[in-house]
Amino acid sequence: MAPARIEIESTKSVKESKFNPNFTQHVINTMGPKTDPRLRSVMASMITHLHDFARETECTFDEWSAGIELLNWAGRISSNGRNESLLLFDLLGIETIVDEIMNSKIAASPGVPTDSAVLGPYYRENAPLYKNGDSIVQGKTDGEVTYMHGRVLDAGTGKPIEGVVLDLWQASTNGKYEHIDETQPDFNLRGRFTSDSKGEYGLYCIRPTPYAIPSDGPGGTLLQLLDRHPMRPAHIHLLISHPGYKPLVTQIYDREDPYLETDTTFAVKDSLVVEFAPKKGDPKAVLDLAFDIRLVKPAEESQLAKTNGTALASSA
Fold first, then answer.
1. pLDDT 10s digits, 282-311
2. End-to-end CA distance of the chain
3. Pick from 238, 159, 144: which is nearest to 193 by CA?
4. Could you tell me the CA-to-CA distances from 66 to 53, 70, 125 in Å, in that order?
5. How far is CA 231 from its chain centroid?
């Protein structure tokens, strides 16, 4: 059976267009019968929007070549610990939109999970596995050492979850992650912790500081061309996982940071803004940070979405 023909209406009518009105549909129709239906739909939409963009802006060959070179440059400069291509999409707000779409599948009602946020380009796999109460600070630091702690709970029942892995990473006070800073030990300010039988976790980190994204790549160049500042507000990354729950990628932000409203990657959410309080009686830390995490099971997520009239996509 031949695949269903997908026709997407262009933003310009055939009468208004001075270009070949049949070309875009011809490109879409070249997809073969074995193409996955979801991929067919996504590609048809993308092709249509890209073609319309080129026509509406009347893109020149020099501009097209510059765009291709920007993407090529991002590929060349990327490494295991630096994803410049992802950074470009972050700077344009694309990853935040994808995150918003996924969050919209969960009902905005009491008991929903902790909000997600963008992964960012500097995640590294296989961070050291620590015990609760350990520190991710390797060696000396000029930062404000903070005891971060909380509980991991089931969003539906409020019960604690044991065995949740919390993978954390943050930049140092000089605004650099350790893998792009030769002055820091490998995996400094990165670590994995596991919630105990009470769902509790605890660790020592530093109070995060704002930093500028690297200026030596296409991301920095793009911001300069757009006359935008390069600053990210102070934050800590978390990647949270458990076999029985939906994984959570998120960030938490310092309430006192001046860049919350103008984050260059547009990732800040009010629910993820936290307070750093003075800590007494602990010789290892000067600040205290309490942050509880609520996870949802995949089946519960689907039920919450249906309650609000939103069906989950099959690929969620």
1. 999 999 999 999 999 886 554 544 444 333
2. 28
3. 238
4. 16, 6, 33
5. 16
Q: Count other C-beta atoms under 10 Å from residue 13's C-beta.
A: 9
- 195-215, pLDDT tens digit by residue? 999 999 999 999 999 999 988
Beta bridge partners of 239: 167, 249
- What is the rounded average pLDDT for all residues in the chain? 89
Greater confidence (181 vs 104) lies with: 181
Query: Is the whole-model pTM more than 0.90?
Result: no
> What's residue 11's pLDDT?
53
10 Å CB burial of residue 38 (0-12, 13-18, 19+) is: exposed
